[in-house]
Amino acid sequence: MKCSKEDQKAAWDWVTLVGDVWTEHGQTVADATRHFPSSFHRPPRNPAEKLNSGYKATEYFLYVFGLGPGLFRTILPRPYWLNFCKLCAGVRIIIQRAITGNQLRLAHTYFLQFVEEYEQLYYQRRVDRLHFCRPCVHTLIHAAPEVVRVGPGAYYTQFALERTIGNIGQEVHQPSQPFSNMSQR
To answer: How far is residue 175's CA from residue 26's CA, in Å, rounded to a whole number?
Structure first.
């Protein structure tokens, strides 16, 4: 990530997953795989080795929102970890298949708190850190209200599409003629 002249990366106290800490963290994630039920599509692999080489949507989800709160507790400074946990709690609620009104209001509260604290912790109202405020962070403010309009996140996530693409890929027996193979379905 780029840093302006007015900012110093050494002052970024949230940068903790580097060097040996990142390597050890990756191994901890890999070691957790044996604790996932076999019904899970893809438990997360070692992110230090595999994060940029074919990590699946389900892996990211389980890594960040499943294992993340527990694993980052001892790595992140407490204010950053608490902020992260609010994000995870909100996401875990809106990704359910059935959500009560109280749960949805709670998720919205978590998202609002997460975004406000995110701006205080990372962006710090500094112009030279404005690039930390990504559109996806702002979108969280609208996530819970959108559930009322379009339904729970479990029904329109990337997971279903990724699984379908995988199934179609298995049906293509001759990569030299994929369209003729698919038309014979």
So the answer is: 34
